Amino acid sequence: MKPRVGHIQFLNCLPLYYGLVKSHALLDIELIKGNPTELNNLLINGKLDISPISSIEYARNYKSLMLFPDFTVSSDKEVKSIILLSRYPLDRLPGKKIALTSTSATSHVLLKLIFNAYNIKPEYFVAPPEPEKMLSESDACLLIGDVALKYYLNGKSMYVYDLGYEWNKLTGHKMVYAVWAINKDFAINKKELCKYVFDLFKKSMDYSMDHLQEISDYAERWEPFSSNSMMEYFRSLHFGFEEEYQKGLLFFYNKAAEIGELSYIPELEFFDIYQDIKR
Amino acid sequence: MKPRVGHIQFLNCLPLYYGLVKSHALLDIELIKGNPTELNNLLINGKLDISPISSIEYARNYKSLMLFPDFTVSSDKEVKSIILLSRYPLDRLPGKKIALTSTSATSHVLLKLIFNAYNIKPEYFVAPPEPEKMLSESDACLLIGDVALKYYLNGKSMYVYDLGYEWNKLTGHKMVYAVWAINKDFAINKKELCKYVFDLFKKSMDYSMDHLQEISDYAERWEPFSSNSMMEYFRSLHFGFEEEYQKGLLFFYNKAAEIGELSYIPELEFFDIYQDIKR
């Protein structure tokens, strides 16, 4: 059976997808698309073999997972597509109602940590990612993905806070929003396929990093964003998992544990791509 | 927005998929995979713009649809993946219980017509496509797709009736199991995109018809079928919609109406690919 691989259906993962299409990889993996919450559930319930997973959910389910090396959705500072859209400036938000998008997990915790640092204690509720509906029942809403990017780029009538930027301003750390993980059973029993998918991903991502202008032009054809803004968006994102990003993630886990969002801080256990794998 | 295009996740549609991957078409259409029943529902409920649809369901919903020209899943005689798997020979089935796969619509009617011709009047019930479970509560089961093909090729311990073969033997007609249809609103308002998808499909299918051996070899890598049996399978299928197939389909509709499975026999209303479409 082909490896069942999750894919975040947001523009932040378009570079990976673009490379996978260009290399014909979709013949050799079964790609299942969804939003982060949907993919989290599918991976945790064993319906996916390899998938992006919200970084906070990896930590909550680390026992049944192994990290797929080298791939994340991260940012150094600005992320542009994880935002708080607010009627009020931050300092006037204490005690207000905040709607959290149901499509995300990491950003819920990230927002709580940022609010915590400013001693803001609002009331939260989770809702589908429909900003107008969310704001009819709240004073600010947390959005991720393409709908967030749209408000980030065009939202002039409200306050827009970029959570990646705010986090870095507060802590100096880089932030890892999603990691890729392998179901541990699959990682143990299907080493060869893990390596195979890793190589497909690597090749695809290398291709895409060399063709970001082409991908931005392509995105403009189908999406409500200009090629220029797509290019800037891709440049603000980071897809690797270098030491600085690992450090940032562990820092985030520590802070999440402090506010009770994590009961245990796992080590980052990576699948060893270079182990001796029999074919 | 990219056109939302349905795709039957059975090996009978692998040639089309293979061509779509090879031509990078998956960058320009949003492909939604499912079994025929799932796709029927998505198309009829407006969640897909263009999709394969069971031929009987096209007739039942013709008012809101237009046919996408030149593409079907059909057979002249043998189809190999629409079978009745039975403990008894046909002439010993009257009065028995028959389980019908929940993934199909056309084949339910086709089986009833074949039984009718032989004056066989069993009791039917619909069940998920799990042959062992189906046969624990019935004497024969109707299967389609890859699971049917598996029994067609390997099922030695039971009677296997190929419904395409049986239908042709009875009527002399070719049989069209699925057509591709466009949501009428989309066909009227997005003519350019319809033509665009048609051209992608045409190019993909032309590529695949020239590379059936390569596709059969590829299928052997991931599927429990040999390259040879895949090649023979692809050759028994027919993907065009020539006059003889249209005639066969209308004959089937007439027969379906006679047993009350259709209340009206629609004309075959095709989207005109060659109309003057402004770009």
List its traits:
homodimer; 279 residues; alpha/beta; D-Maltodextrin-Binding Protein, domain 2; 2 domains; 5-stranded mixed sheet; 44% helix
What does this structure look like?
The structure is a homodimer of 279-residue chains. By secondary structure, chain A is of the alpha/beta class. Chain A has 2 domains: 4-75 and 175-258, D-Maltodextrin-Binding Protein, domain 2 (3-Layer(aba) Sandwich); 82-171, D-Maltodextrin-Binding Protein, domain 2 (3-Layer(aba) Sandwich), CATH 3.40.190.10. Chain A is built from 12 helices and 11 strands. A 5-stranded mixed sheet of chain A has the order 7-6-8-5-9. In chain A, strands 3-10-4-11 form a 4-stranded antiparallel sheet. In chain A, strands 1-2 form a two-stranded parallel sheet. The first copy, chain A, is globular, with a radius of gyration of 18 Å. In chain A, 44% of the residues are buried. The mean pLDDT of chain A is 96. At the A-B interface, helix 1 and helix 10 of A face helix 1 and helix 10 of B.
